[in-house]
Automatic annotation (TrEMBL):
Its EC number is 1.3.1.12. One of its GO terms (molecular function) is NAD+ binding. This is Prephenate dehydrogenase. It is an enzyme of class 1 (oxidoreductase). Coiled coil: none annotated. It comes from Cryobacterium tepidiphilum. The keyword Amino-acid biosynthesis applies. SUPFAM superfamilies: 6-phosphogluconate dehydrogenase C-terminal domain-like, ACT-like, NAD(P)-binding Rossmann-fold domains. NCBIfam families: PRK06545.2-3 (NF005111), PRK06545.2-4 (NF005112). Pfam families: PDH_C (PF20463), PDH_N (PF02153). Residues 303-370 form the ACT domain.
Length: 370
């Protein structure tokens, strides 16, 4: 069944004229194709893998290239280490098209293209901050970009009028356009994406060889910290290599923070040691408080943990009854209790609704943890 957002997107006329050529039909490329096809845009697909290309075409993301194709816009969705090469090739092959790419690093491709003498007056990099844990064309979704930030990296060689096609692409796919320079983008993603990947990976390494008795105690905290450690190593070698200096600077600061924490733990009973620990933890609280909440609002939520029997229909019943109570669900996270046929549903709601929802759910027979 298509999502409500996809149905809405289909009913709105596209801002793009088309055709749009998508090079690389992994998760992002296929999702771009699916989203544009719902808008009625003629999408041309290309990929180095004939198998992936056939899957994406069969999936409905677009058609194969034909002689005489004259795309309005080209979206390059290939790994970071070949992004500049493929963008340069597309600029040369289609001299009337505007070309963008969706690589997660922006300064390196732009610099490489300039050094190669490419016509960057028709190129502007972009980066949708959207994805899934699975990759490949079968993971593609027409609604992948809805409500997600999509950075456009302008530069002096391209005019606003020419770059307008990229804005149209983003708006057609439901993304939220964010303008940055290449340097600003790479520094930002180093902080919010690349360094968290490194920290998650290093924490996950600590789990190797750990006894099952310890791992069976793992709860939501450990799973949250290590979830992204399951990402593709080959891709992340490319990303980290292309954005090495911003990542390195943040990791150096992180190492200093870690050293302070370790020093405070050397002798927790020493004068001032507990105060140092408290200050470090409080700084972490302050950092989390700066993260925008739902819809970018700076609002804090309260969590209620409800025990849900691991049987069909129970979670649906819980969500339905929350709606009947008239409380808006701000977020939801599920966790299973090891060795027990029960799940823990952590429900985030506004503070003023927490007491009423807890009372109503308890009255309906739900067990509230804590």
């Amino acid at each position: 069944m298509r999502s409500q957002e996809s149905a809405v997107a289909e009913s709105v006329e596209s801002r793009l004229v088309g055709p749009v050529r998508v090079v690389g039909v992994g998760l992002l490329g296929t999702s771009v194709g699916l989203g544009l096809r719902e808008r009625g845009i003629d999408v041309i697909l290309a990929d180095a893998s004939p198998t992936n290309l056939s899957i994406a075409i069969d999936y409905g993301a677009g058609r194969a290239a034909q002689p005489g194709d004259a795309p309005q816009l080209i979206v390059v969705c290939v790994p970071p280490d070949v992004t500049a090469e493929i963008v340069g090739r597309e600029l040369e092959a289609f001299p009337d098209a505007i070309v963008t790419d969706v690589a997660s690093v922006k300064l390196a491709p732009l610099t490489a293209l300039r050094d190669a003498g490419a016509d960057v007056s028709r190129y502007i990099g972009s980066h949708p901050l959207a994805g899934r844990e699975r990759g490949g064309p079968l993971a593609g979704r027409a609604d992948l970009f809805i409500g997600r930030p999509w950075v456009v990296v302008g530069h002096d060689a391209i005019s606003y009028q020419r770059a307008n096609a990229i804005d149209d692409l983003i708006l057609d796919l439901g993304g939220i356009l964010v303008e940055m320079t290449a340097e600003e983008h790479d520094q930002a993603v180093a902080l919010v994406s690349h360094v968290p990947q490194v920290v998650s990976t290093l924490m996950a390494q600590r789990l190797g060889g750990s006894p099952g008795s310890a791992l069976n105690l793992a709860g939501g905290g450990l799973r949250d910290v290590t979830r992204i450690a399951a990402s593709d190593p080959e891709l992340w070698v490319q990303i980290l290599g292309a954005n090495a200096q911003p990542v390195r600077r943040i990791l150096q600061d992180f190492r200093e923070d870690l050293d302070r924490f370790i020093e405070a733990l050397d002798d927790p009973a020493a004068p001032g040691a507990r105060r140092k620990l408290a200050e470090e933890l409080a700084r972490g609280n302050a950092g989390v408080a700066q993260l925008p909440g739902k819809h970018g609002q700076d609002r804090r939520f309260v969590s209620i943990i409800v025990m849900v029997n691991d049987t069909p229909g129970q979670l649906a019943r819980l969500l339905n009854e929350i709606g009947e109570v008239g409380v808006n669900l701000e977020d939801l996270r599920l966790e299973h209790s090891p060795g027990a046929q029960i799940g823990l549903a952590e429900i985030a709601v506004l503070p003023e609704a927490a007491a009423r929802l807890t009372e109503e759910l308890a009255a309906r027979g739900w067990r509230i943890a804590g």
